């Protein structure tokens, strides 16, 4: 086993045994494509070691983009099990990813890893999850129940909204209980803004793996104007579905090892960033949609509860000890 393979298998062991906590006799479904085969094999190895009943599903390029599950795939996905999704991330496949999330929550638990790479596995999955949990919970508590959140950045973002009485989810690598879904790499806390309060401008550097500056203007939770190639590609995919233009998420990256890069799975976890999504609110807000597209805000300044929490991507609250 090479050094690189050893690091990958160590990360996969932590994912299987500590994050998913796969047990003997559990049904485990792993959905992959050819590009992720090395990672899939590492997951399958450790699932087998744990005594799980493991099934792998290879999505061939000739069947892509996949937007809806086949009847046979539904039979696989809609029975109690652990599922891991690691297909290459593609805009047209967002409805299929939405189906996976709903199936995972309803019938078992799900780890979403769209666009995962061997490098991301080795850097960001084999980490100290207790430390990540502490950072994430501290940041969430600074913003939770605030009626006066404001986010700005040097590029021109200026958006205000309330998160009062909205639930928060923390993505800290614990996907061990039925009904849960989360990402690996982990590292964010997120909620959905109160839709009618969400007004202002987002100037983004990335939307759903589409690099390039974009501008999104919102009025009372609805996207009313937008520009930029990445945003335009997303809106083309949404078409005339109004649910795809409603604010669905506000998230804060909490993983200090994550980098801003063309892969949203990693970029949205980067410390000092925030992200907003249009589309489905994952049951936190009022909007339900087959769409969900994350948009990244770099060098974020965050204000809540009458005080500054972060300035240009640097946290100001000294008790966090996160500098």
Describe this structure in words.
There is one protein chain. 27% of the residues lie in helices and 29% in strands. By secondary structure, it is an alpha+beta fold. It has two domains: 3-123, 3-Layer(aba) Sandwich (Thermophilic metalloprotease-like); 127-320, no CATH class. The longest helix is centred in the N-terminal third of the chain and has 17 residues, at 3-19. The radius of gyration is 19 Å and the shape is globular. It starts with a helix and ends in an 8-residue tail after the last strand. The model has no long low-confidence stretch (mean pLDDT 93).
Give the tags:
five-stranded parallel beta sheet; 29% strand; single chain; Thermophilic metalloprotease-like; 323 residues; alpha+beta; 8 helices; 2 domains; 27% helix; globular
Overall helicity: 25-40%
Cα distance spanning the termini: 38 Å
The portion of residues forming beta strands comes to 25-35%
Based on Cα principal axes, name the global outline: globular
Question: How do the helices and strands line up, and which of them pair or pack?
Answer:
Layout: H1 3-19, E1 27-32, H2 37-49, E2 53-58, H3 71-77, E3 81-85, H4 94-107, E4 108-112, H5 118-124, H6 129-143, E5 149-152, E6 158-161, E7 169-171, E8 181-183, E9 188-191, E10 199-207, E11 210-219, E12 222-227, H7 229-238, E13 247-253, H8 264-267, E14 274-279, E15 292-297, E16 301-304, E17 307-311, E18 314-315
Parallel strand pairs: 1-2, 1-3, 3-4, 4-8
Antiparallel strand pairs: 5-6, 5-16, 6-10, 7-9, 9-13, 10-11, 10-15, 11-12, 13-14, 14-15, 16-17, 17-18
């Amino acid at each position: 086993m090479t050094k690189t393979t050893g690091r990958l298998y160590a990360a996969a062991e932590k994912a299987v045994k500590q994050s998913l906590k796969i047990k003997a006799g559990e049904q485990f479904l792993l959905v992959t494509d050819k590009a992720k085969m090395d990672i899939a094999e590492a997951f399958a190895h450790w699932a087998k070691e744990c005594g799980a009943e493991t099934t792998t599903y290879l999505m061939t390029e000739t069947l892509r983009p996949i937007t809806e599950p086949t009847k046979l795939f539904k039979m696989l996905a809609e029975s109690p099990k652990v599922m891991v999704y690691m297909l290459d991330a593609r805009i047209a496949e967002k409805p299929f990813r939405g189906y996976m999330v709903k199936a995972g929550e309803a019938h078992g638990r799900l780890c979403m890893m769209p666009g995962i790479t061997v490098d991301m596995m080795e850097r960001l999955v084999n980490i100290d999850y207790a430390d990540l949990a502490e950072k994430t919970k501290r940041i969430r508590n600074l913003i939770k129940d605030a009626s006066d959140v404001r986010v700005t950045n040097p590029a021109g973002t200026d958006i205000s909204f309330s998160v009062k009485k909205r639930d928060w989810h923390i993505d800290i690598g614990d996907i061990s209980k039925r009904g849960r879904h989360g990402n690996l790499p982990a590292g964010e806390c997120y909620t959905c803004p109160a839709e009618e309060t969400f007004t202002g401008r987002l100037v983004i550097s990335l939307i759903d793996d589409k690099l390039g500056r974009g501008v999104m203007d919102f009025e009372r939770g609805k996207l009313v104007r937008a520009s930029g190639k990445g945003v335009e590609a997303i809106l083309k995919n949404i078409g005339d579905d109004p649910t795809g233009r409603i604010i669905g998420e506000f998230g804060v990256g909490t993983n200090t090892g994550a980098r801003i890069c063309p892969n949203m799975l990693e970029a949205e976890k980067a410390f000092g960033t925030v992200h907003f999504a249009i589309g489905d609110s994952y049951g936190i807000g009022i909007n339900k949609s087959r769409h969900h597209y994350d948009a990244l805000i770099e060098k974020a300044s965050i204000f809540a509860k009458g005080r500054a929490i972060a300035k240009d991507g640097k946290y100001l609250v000294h008790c966090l000890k996160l500098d």
